[in-house]
Each structure stands twice: as C-alpha cells, then as structure tokens.
Amino acid sequence: MKASPLLRAWLARLAKQGVTIRTRHRFTGWGDSKHIRFEIPESTVAFTPDAVLLAMGGASWSRLGSDGEWADLFAAETAPFAPANCGFTPDWSQDFLHRHEGNILHSVGLSFENEKTRGDLTITARGLEGSALYALSARLREAIARDGSATILLDLRPTLPEDAALKRLQAQRPRESLSNRLRKAFALDSTARELLRDATPKDATPHQLTHTLKALPITLTGTDTLDRAISTAGGLRQDALDEHFMIRSRPGVFAAGEMLDWEAPTGGYLLQGCFSTGLAAAKGVLGWLESSVSGIA
C-alpha cells in the first residue's frame, strides 16, 4: 500500500478499537505531578491520565511539528540535538554548486576511516546529500566537530578495478581532449569529469587520473541545517529512562521514538526503531498500570 491509504486504514482500525485522536493539541508540560497540559487554539486543557506515553519526535522538519521544543521540559535529562542522516557542506565554490545544483552522481562509492558505502549523491545549493553520505553522517559529524573538517574519498566507478580503469584510459586516443577520453573510458557525465579534472594536476598522467577516479578526496566543512536533516541525534538520554522506557524523574511517564537519544543509519532503520521503542514503551505502560492496580507501584 502507498502511504496515504495505509494511514487511512490505520486510523480507521484505531477508531474501531476505541482510540480517540485529538488534533491541534500542543504539549506544554505538567500542572502538578498528575495533570498534563496542552495548548489548543482556544485556550489550554489539562488531563489526569493513569499513564503517559510521549512520542514527540526529534528536532528536524519543524514545519511538520517536530521542533524539539519539548526538550526544555527535560533540560537536565536531554542530550543536545544534532543532525543525522543529513547533507554536508564540501569546500566547493558557490559557482560550482550553482552550475551543478540538482545533478546526481549515480552509484558512487564513499569511504571514511575504513568504512565504505554505496549509493547516489545529489548536489544541492548547500552542498551534498544522499544515501551514501547519510550512512556515514554520525562519524563525519563527530570528526568535523572535533577537527573542523573531514575528508571523504569518492569512488566514481566502484565496480571497476583501478588496473582495468587504467587500461580503458590508455586505450583512448591521446589526441582527444581529456574530457572526451574520460567520457568514453568511464561514461562520466560533465559533473564527474569536472570533479576529476579539478582534483588532479593539469598534466596528470593516466595513473594519476585512474587513482583519483577511485579515490577522489572531498573535504567536508560542516553539516546541512538541523531542520533539513532526515532525523536527529540527541534527546532523552538512556540513563534518564528505566528498562521499560519510563522516565525516571516522572513515574508513569514513558517515552519512545526519535525523542530518545539514538540515531539510525537510514530512514528504514529509523522507522523500525521508532516502532520497536513504541512497542517496548507500550508494554512498559501496561506493566505500570497492572502494578498500580495491584498496589506494587
């Protein structure tokens, strides 16, 4: 199923199970130890629930409601937010970014500190983004914070061994332009050819060109903005929760999903992590309610 009909079917099933969904409610905290408060367009409302499960997201894509402002209510228990699965800023000129904005480097390889990934990279007005980069985002973000920059190695033809690439290049007519030889030997588009030319000397030998084809250095100087990241690191720290995902400072209040301090390498793992922590926290809620009824809590 596509996302929209799946969501409609999901909501219909929840309604049949007696779930009440109240929209346009913004969580603002507690009135006292038992009351939980929300802002609504007309005023404020408060509830006195037996248990609470919070799933308020991280701090990216605020226009969809996930702005991370809830963290102010748990300041002492929250790690700072940071972008994850995010784009990065290379040390490329604005002219290059402007001319190649929207172009895609298809099926390239990336490596950083002996970790390798494969996928597409898209050039944006701000820099680079794409699945191959997202998988390295945590390590790259930490390296940039520590050292001020991080250099990744780009493999423009990851399925072609370097010795085979050298033979292909040497088989081209030497009188042809370098751009034509690169295009014919490796089927490189204009963006890839310019990157390769800029990363090698003007009088580069075939050995230098093929070596750079397989390990083209790109220096990254920063991440894209937090709000544009697919997901975020940071949030409620693990030591703020017990083994049932209950917030230690708030008995009966549980948390799940991206508001917890963890990050996933891709969107698929992110969704699975949110579903899994939601299920684990829900089981924690049931256990808490049962213990409360029996007088254990």
TrEMBL record:
Keyword line: FAD, Flavoprotein
Lineage: superkingdom: Bacteria
SUPFAM superfamilies: FAD/NAD(P)-binding domain, HI0933 insert domain-like
Positions of the RsdA/BaiN/AoA(So)-like insert domain: 83-231
Listed cofactors: FAD
UniProt-listed NCBIfam families: flavo_PP4765
Protein name per UniProt: NAD(FAD)-utilizing dehydrogenase
Organism, as annotated: Gluconobacter japonicus
